[in-house]
Specification:
By secondary structure, the protein is α/β, with parallel strands linked by helices. It is built from 13 helices and nine strands. The strands form three sheets. It has a five-stranded mixed beta sheet with strand order 3-4-9-5-6, sandwiched between helices. The protein has a two-stranded antiparallel sheet with strand order 1-2. A hairpin with a 5-residue loop joins strand 1 and strand 2. Helix 7 packs antiparallel against helix 11, helix 10 packs across helix 11 and helix 11 crosses helix 12. The longest helix is centred in the N-terminal third of the chain and has 44 residues. The protein is elongated, with a radius of gyration of 33 Å. 22% of the residues are buried.
């Protein structure tokens, strides 16, 4: 307010004209000083952005073929590393990308429930996953429900079987990236994937009863005869796109929930990370430190690279829709009558089978009791 001085206790008092004039000149000096500071901050930020661009161009020529460079509108850079989860070469690609990019943030395709794999070695992971027994199944059923628990247990068995054939536990590229990023104290590590329980619950909620039976049948009868050489071939984008297309023909809901929705979710997470600029050390004569756009390295499965690259430039305002489990619609009358018919059919069949054994015995006992009442002279 003009002509008003704020006192220590928060009350105000009128200024004299001389004080007002002095305050005006002081204000002009402060404004010009702020303008110079802002200009200096802009220059520092521009230099930092240019440095990011030079660093990115220098790295891009030496990056592995599985890396896609994405640029945010504010100048932030995202190195999207596509990996095969059982590939040793993918671990080397992740380490090489982090060493070249020197990122401010590392985002991995892991949720909180799976984050323990980042801190365990291959041997510790193998020992932790070796206890897939009946007790584990019972615990999963108690925690997740019958359908979800059985589904998660079958996936765990398949993972262990595949790891035994290949001699490697899944997630090696995430552990390699985590260990490499820890060498830089200023690098943040973020978990970018949607929670596993939400993904599985959404999948089962969208599948019909017969689709679930068909999916379980495919999983149970799947032959896991993959070799390490074939794992490396999965990094071929043309081959992977063909596999996803074939899978989409048989199970379109599976591809929608496991691939497309998670692509959108992780692209949104990358946009969020890019919007938070990195604070630079304060330079001499600067009233406040400058900022620059961040450099992000994101490690995801090769099957998510195409979708994330398509969603990243778009406006993704909300991911709440794909972060919750949809409420299933009420069953139709036909389905209710069908289940009732099956239930009553089982009950009546059980009574019939039981009656074939029990009714004759009752009849024999009744006839024996009646015969016992007959006088002996009539027998």
């Amino acid at each position: 307010k003009k002509g008003v001085i704020e006192t220590m206790d928060g009350s105000t008092a009128p200024r004299s004209t001389a004080a007002s004039s002095a305050a005006s000149s002081s204000t002009v000096d402060e404004v010009s000083s702020d303008a110079r500071s802002a200009a200096a901050n802009d220059a520092v930020a521009a230099a930092a952005t240019a440095e990011n661009g030079v660093r990115g161009e220098a790295c891009e020529a030496d990056l592995p073929k599985t890396v896609t460079l994405l640029r945010h509108s504010n100048g932030a850079q995202v190195y999207l590393v596509g990996t095969a989860h059982y590939s040793e070469q993918s671990c080397d690609d992740v380490v090489k990308t982090i060493q070249h990019a020197q990122p401010d943030v590392l985002m991995v395709e892991i949720c909180e429930s799976r984050s323990v794999m980042l801190q365990l070695s291959e041997e510790e992971m193998a020992e932790a996953n070796s206890g897939a027994s009946l007790d584990v199944l019972v615990r999963l059923v108690q925690q997740r429900g019958a359908v979800m628990g059985c589904f998660q247990y079958i996936l765990a068995l398949m993972t262990n079987q595949l790891a035994g054939r290949l001699g490697r536990m899944p997630g090696g590229e995430f552990r390699a990236g985590y260990l490499e990023a820890k060498k830089n104290p200023s690098c943040r590590i973020c978990l970018g994937d949607r929670p596993l329980q939400v993904t599985l619950a959404r999948l089962l909620a969208k599948l019909s009863f017969f689709q679930k039976l068909r999916l379980f049948s495919h999983i149970v009868h799947a032959e896991l005869t993959v070799t390490p050489e074939e794992v490396e071939e999965f990094k071929n984008k043309d081959l992977l796109e063909q596999l996803l297309a074939d899978l989409g023909k048989n199970f379109p809901t599976l591809v929608e929930v496991l691939v497309d929705e998670r692509d959108r979710y992780m692209a949104h997470q990358l946009q969020y990370l890019c919007r938070h600029k990195v604070e630079l050390p304060r330079q001499p004569g600067q009233p406040a430190p400058g900022v620059r756009p961040p450099v992000v390295v994101s490690v995801v499965g090769i099957g998510h690279v195409k979708g994330i690259s398509q969603y990243f430039p778009q406006n993704i305002p909300n991911i709440t829709e794909i972060s919750i489990v949809p409420v299933p619609p009420p069953p139709s009358r036909t389905w209710v009558y069908f289940k009732r018919g099956v239930f009553y059919g089982v009950v009546f069949f059980g009574l019939y089978r039981l009656g074939r054994r029990v009714v004759p015995a009752i009849a024999v006992d009744w006839a024996a009791s009646q015969m016992s009442r007959v006088p002996r002279r009539f027998i």
